[in-house]
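Retry 2 of 3 after timeout on previous attempt. Resubmitting structure tokens to design endpoint.
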């Protein structure tokens, strides 16, 4: 029986692509005195290209932007600090995030989160989404000293929740960091569909977060039937 659901953050609960677009749009407007010589679409598009959906950290992104776009009057360090300070104000959730979490909590499931990234930055984003209180455990790679897909991080979460891998589900958008990382320790894996990837070998696939409670209900119902037949 499933007792706990553990989530990735970026691309799973946080609509990271839309959040980044909103942030860089606002940054361009906010710092227009320094970057206004660059066409707005160029600034936005190049930032998104350079950061590669979060897999290139922003210190490198801003160094490259300053160099390419001949930005003066403001340093890459100041642009980077603006990102650290302001991104949390641009966090966009996926549709049905709160409704889904409310549903799972009402059904008494334990909830956890494992996310790669910098500790305080990610925690600020979690708080900005208004979801921190839903979770029984939150593990952020910087603070834990290991990152997904390292199996130690997944084991650490289920140990804190006092459950077994077979009693838990992990849902995330990345085929390696999330899906394979969870499957490697025996968790049921759910892939949050992402158009960047194809043919992901997950146990289940969801597009809308409200599909999750339905899947869990189906799994637990099948477990109940199986146990009942074995006891007869």
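Retry 2 succeeded. Sequence:
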């Amino acid at each position: 029986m499933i007792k706990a659901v553990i989530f990735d953050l970026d691309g799973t609960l946080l609509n990271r692509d839309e959040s980044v677009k909103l942030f860089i749009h606002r940054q361009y407007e906010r710092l227009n005195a320094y970057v206004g010589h660059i066409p707005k679409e160029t600034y936005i598009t190049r930032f998104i290209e350079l950061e590669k959906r979060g897999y290139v950290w922003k210190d490198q992104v801003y160094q490259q932007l300053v160099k390419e776009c001949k930005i003066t009057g403001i340093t890459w360090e100041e642009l980077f600090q603006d990102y650290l300070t302001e991104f949390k104000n641009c966090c966009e959730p996926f549709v049905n995030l709160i409704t889904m979490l409310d549903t799972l909590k009402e059904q008494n499931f334990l909830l956890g989160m494992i996310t790669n990234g910098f500790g305080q930055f990610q925690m600020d984003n979690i708080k900005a989404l208004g979801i921190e209180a839903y979770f029984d455990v939150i593990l952020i790679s910087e603070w834990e000293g290991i990152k997904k897909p390292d199996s130690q991080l997944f084991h650490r979460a289920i140990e804190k929740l006092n459950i077994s891998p077979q009693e838990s589900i992990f849902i995330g958008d990345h085929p390696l960091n999330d899906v394979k990382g969870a499957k490697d320790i025996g968790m049921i894996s759910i892939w949050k569909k992402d158009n960047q990837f194809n043919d992901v070998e997950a146990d289940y696939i969801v597009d809308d977060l409200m599909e999750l409670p339905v899947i869990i209900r189906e799994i637990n119902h099948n477990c109940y039937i199986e146990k009942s037949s074995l006891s007869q």
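Attempt log closed. The beta strands are 4-7, 110-115, 137-140, 168-172, 188-192, 204-206.
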